[in-house]
């Protein structure tokens, strides 16, 4: 069982339980930090799942919250133990967006708006190599290949016939027009997009230039939803040096509404396939 545990998700669930226990006691994060002689930021990171939680942390927090039911304590301690295990992505070394990979691995559905490049889950190998090399001009060949392999491994969720990730992607037309890796690579990549869009759990839409300003002009974002009702929806915003994860109900609502507007304004899936095929033929002609 342990080999199937997702440590990122375990940290999130454990953090949610610890926050619930704190709120039941009517305590603030600052008060808990003062009791344990730690920083308030540590308590916040434990509760939002961004930091590994040790069994000692759980024991100390349960003591502060006066949790007397041993079954609850044991359950939380087990979650803490599992949260410190390594996910499959750790075998590839230090991956800066490992938190996101953990969330994506466990997600039931993913909605993404991408204004620049093809989403990683839908990239071909040559396209992925060109994207990574272009984005990281000082990276070594080994580093580039390592990142590409992680990206390709992530695509297992799309190909999983038993429990596939439901993917809905809205792509700006610039994604199709940006010549990444040369014309042959682009023609191959666009043909692959149309192939993947035929799968029942993958939906693609293109936002054409002719639409003008739209709700996605502020940049890329993703909405991850999970099979367990206790796991809150996460909004993911990718950054150059750090990423942002939003889970507050108001933030989730605002981004979800924006996404509905994007889907309404973009070409429908059939129109999108026709549009992609047209652009792919332009690349194939050279």
Characteristics of this structure?
286 residues; alpha/beta; 434 Repressor (Amino-terminal Domain); Endonuclease, Chain A; 2 domains; six-stranded mixed β-sheet; 13 helices; 52% helix; DNA binding
Strand and helix layout:
Elements: H1 7-24, H2 29-36, H3 40-47, H4 55-64, H5 70-83, H6 98-106, E1 109-114, H7 125-135, H8 141-154, H9 156-159, E2 166-172, H10 173-177, H11 183-196, E3 202-207, E4 221-225, E5 234-237, E6 244-246, H12 249-265, H13 269-285
Helix pairs in contact: 1-5, 2-3, 4-5, 7-8, 11-13
Pfam families: DUF5753, HTH_31
GO molecular function: DNA binding
Protein name: XRE family transcriptional regulator
What would you say about this model in short?
The chain has helices spanning 7-24, 29-36, 40-47, 55-64, 70-83, 98-106, 125-135, 141-154, 156-159, 173-177, 183-196, 249-265, 269-285; strands at 109-114, 166-172, 202-207, 221-225, 234-237, 244-246. The protein has 286 residues and is of the alpha/beta class.
Question: How would you describe what is shown here?
Answer:
The chain is an alpha/beta fold. The protein has two domains: 9-83, 434 Repressor (Amino-terminal Domain) (Orthogonal Bundle); 97-285, Endonuclease, Chain A (2-Layer Sandwich), CATH 3.30.870. Helices cover 52% and strands 11% of the residues. The protein contains 13 helices and six strands. The protein has helices at residues 7-24, 29-36, 40-47, 55-64, 70-83, 98-106, 125-135, 141-154, 156-159, 173-177, 183-196, 249-265, 269-285; strands spanning 109-114, 166-172, 202-207, 221-225, 234-237, 244-246. A six-stranded mixed beta sheet has the order 3-2-1-4-5-6, with helices on both faces. It is elongated and about 70 Å long. The mean pLDDT is 89.
């Amino acid at each position: 069982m342990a080999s199937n545990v997702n440590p990122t998700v375990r940290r999130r669930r454990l953090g949610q339980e610890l926050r619930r226990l704190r709120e039941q006691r009517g305590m603030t994060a600052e008060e808990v930090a003062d009791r344990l002689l730690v920083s308030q930021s540590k308590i916040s990171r434990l509760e939002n799942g961004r930091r590994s939680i040790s069994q000692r942390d759980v024991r100390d927090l349960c003591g502060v919250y006066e949790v007397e039911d041993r079954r609850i304590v044991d359950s939380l301690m087990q979650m803490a133990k599992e949260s410190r295990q390594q996910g499959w992505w750790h075998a590839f070394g230090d991956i800066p967006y490992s938190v996101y990979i953990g969330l994506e691995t466990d997600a039931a559905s993913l909605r993404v708006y991408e204004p620049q490049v093809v989403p990683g889950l839908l990239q071909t190998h040559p396209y992925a190599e060109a994207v990574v090399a272009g984005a990281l001009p000082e990276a070594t060949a080994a580093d580039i290949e390592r990142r590409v392999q992680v990206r390709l491994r992530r695509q297992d969720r799309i190909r999983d016939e038993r429990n596939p990730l439901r993917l809905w992607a809205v792509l700006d037309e610039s994604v199709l027009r940006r010549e990444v890796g040369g014309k042959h690579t682009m023609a191959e990549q666009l043909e692959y997009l149309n192939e993947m869009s035929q799968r029942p759990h993958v939906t693609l839409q293109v936002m054409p230039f002719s639409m003008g300003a739209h709700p996605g002009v502020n940049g890329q974002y993703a909405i991850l939803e999970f099979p367990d009702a206790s796991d809150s929806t996460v909004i993911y915003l990718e950054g150059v040096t750090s990423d942002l994860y939003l889970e507050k109900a108001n933030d989730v609502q605002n981004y979800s509404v924006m996404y509905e507007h994007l889907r309404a304004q973009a070409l429908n899936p059939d129109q999108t396939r026709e549009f992609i095929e047209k652009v792919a033929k332009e690349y194939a002609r050279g």
